[in-house]
Specification:
About 7% of the residues have low confidence. The chain has a three-stranded antiparallel β-sheet with strand order 1-3-2. It is built from five helices and five strands. Helix 2 crosses helix 4. By secondary structure, the chain is an alpha+beta fold.
Length: 191
């Protein structure tokens, strides 16, 4: 059984039929339990466990919801008559399976998209790059004076230049951590 197709089939069925909220909850709980058990044709679960899965509903609520699903022919159930026994459920499939297409004996005369990929014939598609490469040597960055002045540096042609940093008196700044860096290859800080 296909889980998604079953859920979609139930949604379509609900669009045409009335069903109480607890009956819907029971149907979803049974479907999840069947999926958890890897889709057996029939499966058994105790009423106590099922009530716990449904959020602690009472025994009468479970009984009414189960009888509603049986009357709507969504579920077949063999109900336990004594305490401690389990109820056997069989979920009704709510979708039609589409048979897989059989491969034809004769090859088709028209080439298909898959055939052209298998034969290796090139498909002429325009090559559109997602990103244009950037030539960093030709790009000129505009910087406003006073911006990017880390460690009191100056701005020259859009790049910070700590090697030319000067104090207010004109002396070079000593102890800059960026003094041995190739500043011509790095972009501005703070952009």
């Amino acid at each position: 059984m296909n889980y998604i197709s079953q859920l979609n089939g139930f949604r379509r069925w609900r669009g045409q039929h009335a069903l109480s909220p607890f009956a819907q909850l029971l149907w979803y709980s049974l479907t999840v339990e069947q999926n958890h058990r890897l889709w057996p044709e029939r499966f058994c679960i105790s009423s106590t466990d099922l009530r716990q899965i449904m959020g602690g509903v009472g025994p009468n609520t479970l009984r009414h919801a189960r009888s509603e699903l049986i009357e709507a022919e969504l579920v077949e159930a063999t109900v336990a008559t004594c305490g401690g026994q389990v109820t056997e459920y069989r979920m009704i499939q709510l979708y039609e399976e589409i048979p897989a297409a059989e491969p034809s004996a004769e090859p088709s005369q028209e080439p298909s998209a898959e055939a052209s990929e298998c034969t290796g014939t090139p498909i002429n598609k325009p090559a559109t790059p997602l990103l244009k490469p950037i030539n960093l040597k030709t790009v000129k960055q505009e910087c406003k004076p006073g911006r990017c002045k880390q460690d009191g540096g100056t701005i020259e042609r859009g790049l910070a230049s700590p090697a030319r940093q000067t104090t207010a008196t004109g002396n070079a700044v000593i102890g800059s951590s960026r003094s041995r860096t190739n500043w011509g290859a790095e972009p501005l800080y703070g952009l």
